[in-house]
Amino acid sequence: MNDKKEITFVSKIRSLIWLLVKYLIAFSIIGYLIFNNYHSFLNALEEIDLSWLIFAMIGYFLMMVSQALRWYMLLKVQGIMVSFFETFSLTMQGVFFSLVIPGGAIGGDLVRTTFLVSRTPSGNKLAATSTVFMDRFMGMFAQFLFALIFAVPFIASFERMDNTLKYTIILILIISALGLVAGFCLVIHRRIEKLPGISFLIKFADKLTKGFVTRTFEILDVYHSQKMVMIYCVLISMVMTQLLMSFLLFLIAKGIHCANIIINPLILSIALGNTAGLLPITPGGLGTRDAVVKATLTAGGYSSGDAVAMPLLLSIIMLVVSISGGLFFLFHKRSKREYKIIKE
Questions:
Q1: Side-chain half-sphere of 113: how many Cα atoms within 13 Å?
Q2: For 19-37, what is each residue's pLDDT tens digit?
Q3: What is the pTM of this model?
Q4: Distance separating alpha carbons of residues 263 and 60, to the nearest angstrom
Q5: 296 closest CA partner among 325, 263, 248
Q6: Do 116 and 129 meet the contact criterion of CB atoms below 8 Å apart?
Q7: How far apart are the first and last CA of the chain?
Q8: Which of 63, 141, 270, 277 could disulfide-pair with 183, CB 3.0 to 4.6 Å?
């Protein structure tokens, strides 16, 4: 028993150390971006108009609302009865905990999953867990699709980047393509099951997992019967996350009085930067997203100072809104018994 506790303690320490290392990497990247463009960065911030940043913060808050709406729709598909406010509260809590506990976005998803599982009858726990997985899947699928749609027409602009970032962006596009293929395979999994040898592998996996694979596929079939809901989820992610974040960059550009605001690089930088942020290198993509956005904006015609200031100010806004999720945790902790989650 003591050995298990010791192993758990060591595992937690390792996770904490890795989280601190990722923050060190993130702030090292940010420090490099600032000090490598120090004077131009300060010039970009000299006459900053905070009102535009406030509008951007409101916009990011609305983006959180849209993500909660996406998850709320998926909960309804599984017949899980939860109020929209509580869905939004849990979404904000997940974003908050993705910053402060090891595991990043997965850690935030674990908070949402733990709540649903604790409030769900034993026969519906997998269905409840599936909503968190599908919510993450829909968001990532839309992000990969968005990145490929807006990156391919601007491949020529990559030539103006240094080799390190150029190869990083190529890696991002490869990840996006593979992600779309994996997502497509998940959608047509019933057809894939009919391929030679696949059925045997599924049965073998079922023996090892006590039928978990088959139960998972049956739950996925519930989503397949609601194709319009899936389409709406993807559209919400593309419009209210990817395009909205591009608009937030535009607001920030107005706030720092960019001399020449060019729209295409704003959209492309978010498409590539958000996908780079999925790499488990830094917490919430902090630093990695900023570096890719900065490089893309520079290649798109923005000055070095503006190209550094814009993603960093966006990251600050994202951090402020995400940290506010801790307030939802405090409120939710007092009121969590007042809701009935699963429909009888």
A1: 17
A2: 788 889 888 999 999 998 8
A3: 0.85
A4: 19
A5: 263
A6: yes
A7: 39
A8: 141
